[in-house]
Specification:
alpha+beta; 3-stranded antiparallel sheet
Amino acid sequence: MAKAIKKTAAKVENNPPTAKPAPAPAADLDRLIHDRVRLGILSALATDASLSFSELKKVLKATDGNLSVHARKLEDAGYIECRKGFEGRTPRTDYRLTREGRQALEQYVAHMEAIISHVKGG
């Protein structure tokens, strides 16, 4: 019995399984995007050319303070643009995804898809 186990172990060492190489670990995900609110902002802006602060707040179910902090981080990174103006006498803040933001989101999604595929064994 011990000989059979040794032979099997030797076969495994000499013939490792031909699995796909593992994707970059989850630790390599873009931490700026990985936050729920920031990922939500980028995802929403990827489907709409422009969204107002109020629209994003409603879609993401976020508070004013939470949304503004996360939007500022994305703006500072160059992932989104912020435009402030007025609609009549009411202040209005609109956000738009930048080219860099779209590329970062696409890379993030591809990375997540690779991790998921690897976990599923596909």
